[in-house]
Protein: Cell division protein ZapA
Organism: Devosia pacifica
Amino acid sequence: MPEVNVEINGRRYRMACEDGQQQHLIGLAERFNRQVEDLKGVVGEIGDGRLTVMAGIAVLDALSDSERRIAELERHVTDLTDAGEALSNDLERMEERFASKLGEAARKLEAVATAIDETGVQSGQQS
């Protein structure tokens, strides 16, 4: 299992990770270190333990917000999917009604054409 060295708050840590995940782990450590450094800028030197706990809580707070937003977006996707299915069903019913009306109109036109033909045949016989 590969190992990488990361630095958090000026201290180096050796960490193991899955093969191919080295750069990802380094990137995560850099982001966490920025969080720690940002907190140090706000609260000053308060000790490694407290600083790390505060940074961890801040990261989890952001994660919690992201999870809430993802759940909200999933609900929106479900609502939009349901609305799309309802529209599709409405369209299908409208197409069926249109086809029925079109068939009805065609039958009426055929009846009119037949009546005209019969009238023409009868007029031709009387001449």
About this structure: Residues 3-110 form one domain. The chain has a mean pLDDT of 93.
